[in-house]
Prior knowledge:
Blueprint: E1 13-18, H1 22-34, E2 40-45, H2 86-89, H3 102-120, E3 123-125, E4 131-135, E5 138-142, E6 147-151, E7 153-156, H4 167-179, E8 182-185, H5 189-196, E9 203-207, H6 211-219, E10 227-229, E11 232-234, E12 242-246, H7 260-264, H8 270-283, H9 288-310, H10 316-328, H11 338-350, H12 357-367, H13 369-376, H14 383-395, H15 397-400, H16 405-417, E13 429-433, E14 436-441, E15 444-448, E16 450-453, H17 467-474, E17 494-496, E18 502-508, H18 523-526, H19 529-546
Parallel strand pairs: 1-2, 1-7, 2-3, 7-18, 8-16, 9-12, 9-16
Antiparallel strand pairs: 4-5, 5-6, 10-11, 13-14, 14-15, 17-18
Helix pairs in contact: 1-19, 8-9, 8-13, 9-10, 9-12, 9-14, 11-16
Amino acid sequence: MERQDMTTGTETCRIAVIGAGPRALGALEALIRRDRDAAFRIEIFDPRPWPGAGPNFSPDQSGLCKLNLPLRSIDLGRAPWDGPDFAEGTGGPAAAERFPARAELGGYLAARLARLMARTGIAVTPRRITGIRRRDEAWFLEDGALRHGPYDEVLLAQGQPATMPDKQLETWRDHAERHGLDLVAAYPDHRLLRQAQNWAGKPVGVRGLGLSTLDVVRLLTLGLGGRFADGRYHRSGREPARILPFSLDGHAPAPKPADATQDARFEPTETETRAFRAAVAQAMAEGPDQALAIICDAIHGPVLRILSDTGGAADAGALNAWLSAEREKPGSQEDRPAATALRAAIDEAHGRAPPSAGYVTGQLMRKWQNALRQGFNPNPAAPATAAAIVGFDDGLKRFSYGPPVASAQELLILIQDGLVDPRAAHDPDIVMTGTGWRLVEHDTTAEVAAMVDAVLPPPDLGRLDDPLMRGLIDSGRVTAIEKGLGARIRPDGRLIGRDGSVQPGLCLLGRLAMGSVIAADSIHDCFGAAADRWAQGVAARVRDHTG
């Protein structure tokens, strides 16, 4: 590899980073921490505004879109150079229980990347890369009009690229276009708010009932001038007549514990965490059924202990039955009406009611996300095993990735008010009509005039509609670990091609590697061990080449 210093221009290794969001920021910081004086020439390519933040944390989005983490739980580590961590810059210990807006975090991340760029001379080229070619042992990037390179290393860190709609959404798009109906994505929020100005007095459907739907509900209420006061919602008159969310299971995610005191009740011991991490590593070598059995065995004891300590029903047989149902069909244990289940979860979050087995399991999995990555990410597994473990973790996200309790309380108030209507929330039949859509669940029928899509695309390589990734897939340089999952990568991020060969210096980090990695949707993962392993691999390859 040639050598070139980041600041002086002396010959060195050339690195291209595609994407300038938090994932790229974490990776570059890890590389610089490894050797601040290393001679790398780094170029970042991203056409979007706000480098460092990415679209998910864009600083220009509404303050109504909240993180699902309290300030006390956000630890992104220190930047390589001077600058406050996020908590210090947004209120410090006094604001520990506050759930910041995603725009706040985005502003911090953008400033953090700007400091790094100023120190190193790295710049972002605002071009969309559409192709990658290898020639003469080097990589070249294409953006349609220009070619960039050569590069020794390329890091794909573009987050979630464009994805083809699923069959339902594709049909709905054609229907909406034919009849002049509004079918709007949840994000970007400013587009949704603009469309919502025309929805006063109309019923609106929301596809999905996860965290994104809570953002949508805020935008269609507080974003349109309404307010909460005295335990009630006060309408502005600009809201839809009704908001009808629906999903496969019909339940909103359970809120996180209300504060640090409540959260401490679910803390695992160090011994329990070590045992869980070891169980995940052991499970990676087994078939899918045995793998989940091993993981559930490691969960069982800590859940029973916490249930006993918190006044819950510490019944070993009942817990086994709950975990068994969770492995087979996540959420199938819940048969209460949506509002009843939400109210119960709010009481559990406040400690007003003993926690359920599901609530305890979910909180443990939240606290074990890093241990889960440590056991899963470095260890190869059979595709079916990887898919089973990822699916188990995803199912429990209805607890582990839950919203602030204040958001759950607001949703319950809106249900009681009648503005949010969950009566057809559980996997309704959906009929397209000339004036919109009709939701049908058992004997309940509801008409909606507009639809919001609040479902996050899965990390499914087969559905990508991005020319860069499609080209790499078609050429065999990127291949899925399993149908419906992400790319096969080595622990250091290097891609494994269709023929099983490791692509030299071509790496991918993030959710598009789901299945090779796990729990990649957290902001903490951007600044964690995956970034360190990538940085270590790059540094090692530079040393090996230069001797």
